[in-house]
Design brief:
The chain is mainly alpha-helical. It folds into two domains: about 1-185, MFS general substrate transporter like domains (Growth Hormone, Chain: A, Up-down Bundle); about 185-389, Growth Hormone, Chain: A (Up-down Bundle). Helices cover about 80% and strands about 0% of the residues. α1 runs antiparallel to α5, α9 (about 200-220) runs antiparallel to α15 and α11 packs parallel to α13.
């Protein structure tokens, strides 16, 4: 494996940390900037929405630029955005910083994936892409506990200071160790969207959207949930996030094993079904801490166990457009994160945080119904015509 793939994985990890970084320190930001928890939660939604929307657009718009140069300039933009976050004196300034960092992060992760697939030989392309996505997955899992630990110890700006330092190091490493990479012809965004003409593919993408939305409805507000229902603070909450993160990482491996053994369809249906039971059970087991921890870890495991199965199902359903579908699925996931954290913010503002779990379970139920409908549809020929190729 080309060692540059691991450098790209590090870059994707650093960039990915920012998305859910605020999840564990909502209360700290809200208190300092004198805004509500829902408003701070909106900063997660805005990031994810902008990320999902701008990724394919920016990658297409910059298709003719040499890849190393583009990576360095985008890392610099990401660095500036997070410096603005560090020195934010009000909500509006932090809001702008989140938009700028989301746009640059979306392009950077897209670049990392495409560069990784281009610098290795064909037999290693899938593995290279998988390694880069491991960095993204790890960052989404570890972003919240990392932000929580640093935020509690040094204030809510501390996690962004760490991002600034790590981004600066990333710029240095790319400058020193990444060779110039010529751009390759890219399928236009319009042609990519044409692949969604197949209703079966659309339903699969919607499944990812509603599943992640259901997950984030509670996960984005797990800190206030733990404070409200269990009375936890500080290190105790950090420990909960650590357990959650460990379970999520294990879940990715479990999902891969299940997919290999029983197939993607059975894995998807099984994972979503048990996920619904676990997330909706959360508010009813808070009186017994050991049981709560077990249920929480099951919920966490299943939230990432579905990913390998969904990717495999997309590949088998649309093998001729699988690369494009993986990219579009990444956007669907981030739209789900944006929608879920937004819905969670509305629930916590208008009702109470315990209801977030039930609403999340309802959204996950929608995803289950959608994927069942998808599986009952016949596979339509998804090979792009010469016009769309």
């Amino acid at each position: 494996m080309d060692k540059r793939v691991y450098l790209l994985t590090v870059v994707s990890f650093v960039v990915g940390l920012v998305e859910l970084l605020l999840g564990g320190i909502l209360h700290l930001v809200a208190d300092d900037l004198q805004v509500s928890l829902g408003q701070v939660g909106l900063l997660i939604s805005v990031f994810s929405f902008v990320f999902a929307l701008s990724g394919p657009i920016l990658l297409t718009a910059t298709a003719s630029i040499e890849r190393k140069k583009l990576t360095l300039w985008t890392l610099l933009a990401f660095l500036v955005a997070n410096i603005i976050a560090v020195f934010s004196t009000g909500y509006a300034m932090l809001f702008i910083a989140r938009i700028l960092s989301a746009m640059s992060a979306a392009l950077l992760i897209s670049l990392c994936v495409t560069i990784a697939s281009n610098i290795v030989t064909k037999p290693y392309q899938a593995r290279a892409i998988g390694i880069v996505f491991m960095g993204v997955s790890a960052s989404l899992v570890l972003g919240v506990p990392l932000g929580l630990m640093l935020g509690n110890a040094f204030g809510w700006r501390a996690p962004f200071v760490l991002i600034v330092i790590l981004t600066s190091l990333s710029i240095l490493f790319v400058l020193l160790f990444m060779e110039k990479i010529a751009p390759k012809p890219m399928i236009s965004l319009r042609k990519q969207l044409r692949t969604l003409a197949n209703i079966k593919i659309v339903l699969i993408q919607l499944t990812s959207f509603f599943f992640l939305a259901g997950h984030l409805t509670l996960y984005a507000y797990l800190t206030p949930f733990l404070q409200s229902t269990l009375g936890l603070e500080g290190n105790a909450i950090s420990l909960m996030y650590l357990l959650f993160g460990i379970a999520a990482i294990i879940g990715g491996g479990v999902g891969g094993i299940l997919t290999d053994r029983i197939g993607p369809k059975k894995t998807i249906v099984s994972v979503i079904s048990v996920f619904i039971i676990s997330i909706t059970s959360i508010p009813f087991v808070t009186s017994i801490l050991p049981i709560f921890i077990i249920v929480m870890m099951v919920w966490s495991m299943l939230s990432w166990a579905i990913t390998p199965a969904m990717q495999s199902y997309l590949i088998t359903t649309s093998p001729d457009t699988s690369d494009i579908q993986q990219s579009l699925n990444n956007s669907a996931l981030h739209f789900g994160i944006a929608f879920g954290s937004m819905i969670g913010g509305v629930v916590i503002e208008q009702a109470y945080v315990e209801l977030n779990a039930l609403v999340g379970g309802a959204l996950a139920t929608v995803s289950l119904l959608i994927i069942i409908i998808s599986m009952r549809l016949k596979i339509k020929n998804t090979k792009m015509s010469s016009k769309a190729a």
